[in-house]
Amino acid sequence: MKPLNVGGQAVIEGVMIRSPQRISTAVRRVNGSILIRNEEYIPFVKKHKRMDIPVVRGAVSFFEMLMLGIKTLNFSAEVAAADAEVEEKGNSKTQSEKKGMFNIALVFTTIVALGLGIAIFFFTPLLITSLLQIDKAALPFNIVAGIIRMLMFVLYVYIISMFKDFRRIFEYHGAEHKSIYAYEDGKELTIENARRYSTKHPRCGTSFLLIVALFAIFTYSVSDTIFGVIAGRPPLLLERFVIHFMLLPIVAGGSYELLKLSGKTRSHPITAILIMPGLWLQRITTKEPDDKMLEVALCALSASLGEECPQASIYDGNLESVRIKNESASE
Known about the structure:
The chain is α+β, with helices and mostly antiparallel strands. The chain has one domain. It has 13 helices and five strands. Strand 1 and strand 2 form a beta hairpin. It starts with 6 loop residues before the first strand and ends with a helix.
């Protein structure tokens, strides 16, 4: 039987895996146990068939995945906070470290949720390109702005990879990829089997960075050209920013369609070239996990497929009970 299409992301001390039927998040508790939260999952466009049309479904799916990612990160942060509350009665140094990790993740999630990251990565490249006195013609301007945007993103990822807490998230990212590799290869979901695979997966979102960047350059070049025809001049800096920002759903939707197409043609030489920069970037965004991290990722994957993970407990929806259970287990 052909393997289901599964994907996921790393969270604080854990991994989220999404299958066509459910979303499962597994996190490692401070007492060494594994906690799993299972949620039934039906994509928005499946529940609302009118939205299941090219580009529109892509935009909807993009923002749906963004919100699910934030929700999952917040869950792992809440569990980390519950653990930190228990540890406050014990080792104060460990408590401080846990609170530091929780605060960093919470700030990062909030920034993404509020869209400040989008504003920075949209406006700053346009500003720098303008200051460089680049030709205001649509295509040259957007090519330079696109290159600057990509360089900024790579630099940003490289900088945060230096922080210990984010490095652990990147290690869980590697564990996610290894577990999915084992599943796609038809292997039994064991640590021994998953360990042998690479942390770099061609279906990871970062693998398609160049595809998204090229589509954004094309879209914004067309919009700037149309503006120039109507207004009789190139758009000013703030005008470009507003237009480009408003077109983000189209960029997201169009990129989603291209990603689906490229996912079906990964063996094609052109697709292989386009995903190569993203695989290089995964040298930063994924790190080699330890066996305990692999165990967590495999539990998340098994749960998403409707299988049991005997060494894990199921989240009952009550964080207070989670805190109490963890406290009693620590005594």
